[in-house]
Amino acid sequence: MRTGSHLMPLSWRLGVSLTSVLVVLALLAGSVHARPSVVVSIHPLFDIVRDIAGEHADVVRVLPPGASPHTFDPTPRDVGRIARADLVVFNGALDLWLRELVEASGSRAPLVEAIADARVQEVLRETFPDLVAVDAGGAVVGFNPHVWLDPLVMREVATLVAEALTDVAPEHADDFAAAAERVRGELLELDAELRETLAPVAGAAFVPFHDAWPYFAARYGLDLIVEIEPFPGREPSPAYLRYALDKIRASGAKAVFSEVQLNRRPAEVVADEAGVELFELDPLGGLDGRDSYASLLRANAAVILQGLR
């Protein structure tokens, strides 16, 4: 039996082999988890972020499809995901619960707030001067936060997202920039498509459920008469419903619109009292047939066209 010093015991050699395997597995696991984790509040932003991030980041959405950001109640699991995030993207105003979750989780992830971006505000100020409050110096001081329902505003959000992703994963900067440029082009094409779709009902009286739609209505020539529920998640008072009914009757509106995420009962009452049809819109998406940002806006445009024609 050979017992030379260069021959190690079998148990030692097995131990070395096992250690080597574990080291390799650890390295592989590290490479898998090296992709930054990006947490996004609402589905329209989530779709833009995941499109631009591609394979270079793990992107998760907090608000479940069908839920409203106005009435959402986060879970402990949401806090855990945010605690592990490398980047947090949210709209602002209506999803401030995400900022609060970041603070509660102890996360130090950078926060990207779409409506706080100067380029987003500039598009709003220039395109919708009647919908944006400015101070004496021309600075934007107040506006409706439902900016994602305008694809041309979202072009600026795409640029913002690419910049934020580059900050957390600079080695993929070129890919993020190229993806953002592609998305910006697609959003421009989507805008042209929506204009064509809604051209037959330009100027028609439009009665949405809540105040998510002013930019969409202004962009595509709809005459927004009144919202059925002025405070999302809170049923309108009888006095407000009477006011809304008077506006609807005076406008000659052909339809009113409920929303997937909110109680449709007030819209049913108004439609019945006004003698008009009731249709349903979806400002957030994430459901079958409305999983992408483009498919969401196309679906809403098709419903509006059907209701107002």
Question: What would you note in describing this structure?
Answer:
This protein is an alpha/beta fold and about 300 residues long. The protein folds into 2 domains: about 35-190, Nitrogenase molybdenum iron protein domain (Rossmann fold, 3-Layer(aba) Sandwich), CATH 3.40.50.1980; about 195-309, Nitrogenase molybdenum iron protein domain (Rossmann fold). Helix content is about 50%, strand content about 10%. Helix 2 (about 45-55) packs across helix 7 (about 175-200), helix 6 packs antiparallel against helix 7 and helix 7 (about 175-200) packs parallel to helix 11 (about 295-309).
Q: From the helix content, strand content and strand pairing, which structural class follows?
A: alpha/beta
* Topology pattern, helix = H, strand = E: HEHEHEHEHEEHHEHEHEHEH
Describe the sheet with the most strands.
4 strands, parallel
Q: Could you estimate the helical fraction of the residues in percent?
A: 40-55%
Percent range for β-strand residues = 5-15%
| CATH architecture term of the largest domain | 3-Layer(aba) Sandwich
Q: Look at the structure and name the CATH superfamily of the largest domain.
A: Nitrogenase molybdenum iron protein domain
Strand order of the largest sheet: 2-1-3-4
Residue stretches low in confidence (pLDDT < 50, at least 5 long) are 1-8, 18-33
The level-1 CATH class of the largest domain:
Alpha Beta
Q: Report Rg.
A: 25 Å
What does the average pLDDT come to?
91
What count of helical segments does DSSP give?
11
| Overall body shape | globular
Distance between the termini: 95 Å
- Topology-level CATH name of the largest domain: Rossmann fold
The tally of beta strands, per DSSP, is 10
